[in-house]
User: What shape does this take?
Amino acid sequence: MRLQALDVFRGIAIASMILVNNPGSWDFVYPLLNHAEWNGCTPTDLVFPFFLFIVGVAMAFSLLKYTKEYRSPETTVPESIYWRIAKRCGILFLLGLLLNGFPTYNLAQIRIMGVLQRISVAYFLAAIAIFNLSKKGLWILSAAILVGYWIALQYIPVPSYGAGNLTPEGNFAAYIDRILLGQNHLWKGGVYDPEGLFSTFPAVVTVLAGYLTGNWIRKQPIRTYTSISLIVFAISCFVVGYLWAEIFPLNKSLWTSSFTTVTVGWSLLLLAFCYETLEVRGWTKWGFPFKVMGLNALFIFVASGFVARLLNLIKIGNSPEAPSAKTWLYETVFQSIFGPMNGSLAFAIATLLFWWVISYFMYRQGWFVKV
Assistant: This one.
C-alpha cells in the first residue's frame, strides 16, 4: 500500500523548506517565512517536524514485517536489517556533513549536526524502538522521553547558569552538546546548535508519533471517518502541547516537549487534509505538483543546498567588494523589479520553481533517488 497523501505531504514539506531557505536577502524576509527568534512557533518552524513525522509514517509501511506486532514471537529481527538501516543512516549523516563542510571541509571547525544528521539519528533510534517494543511500549517510551527531557532542562543545573535556564547559552541541552561535540563543531561555532545532539531525543518522539499514526492509518478503511479521527488526535495534541507550553515554552531550537506535541498536532492536521482530499475524495490534481517534488525530496534538498552555497561563493567581478552571484542576481533582477522585500520573496519563489522543473524532469524520466 502506498499513500499518495504521504508523497504529497513530503512534497509540501520540501517545497516549503526551499522557499524559506532561499530568500534573496536574509535582511528582507516576511515574518511568516522566518523562524521564531527563540521561543515561539511560526509556520516556518513546522517544516522540519513535518519531515520527521513523514519519516515515521513511512516506516509504518516499510518496516511492517519486522515489528513485534507482525512477526512471530519466537523470531527476531534479522541482523542484516539493522545493518541496512545503519548503512542508510550513515549515508544520510555523511551527506549532511558534506553539506556542512562545503567547500573547505575544515575538520577542526566543521559542524557535526544538521538537518540530515538529525533525521539520520532519529530514524535509527526510532527503528530500534519499533523493532523491540510493542505499540504500548512505544507510547510509554515517547511519554517518558518527553517528560524526562522536560525534567532535564528544568531541573538539572548547568554550571554558571543554574537549573531551568532556557537561554541559548544556559540551557542543559546546549551544555551537553558543548561537552560532547565541542563548541567549534556547533552551529556557526556558537554556544548552541538548533539541531543539536541532546535535543534530538524529543525529535525521536516526532518520528515515533508518525510511525504510530501510519500504523493506525494502515488498518483503517479509506473513508472520511479516518480523516476526522486524525483531526481529533490533532486537537488533543494542541490541548496538551499549548497547556504544556505555559511552563515549558514552544522552542524549535531546543525541540521542547511542548513544541514536539504541538507540531505533531499540525502534522496530523495537514495529513488529514491530504488524506481526505487525495485518498478519500480522489482530488489528485492539486497534489500533483507536490507529489513530483515529494518523490525526490532527498535529492532536491541536497542538490539545492549545494547550489545555494555555490551561488554565495561565486563572485561577479574581480574587486574585493565584488558581490556573490546570489547577491548580484537578487539586486540586479529581483530587487530592481519588485523592491527589497518582495524581491527577496520573488527570488525564493524563482528558486522553488527552478527545483520544481528539475523534479518534474526527473519524474518524467522515472528517476527517483533513494538511500
In short: The chain is about 65% helix and 0% strand.
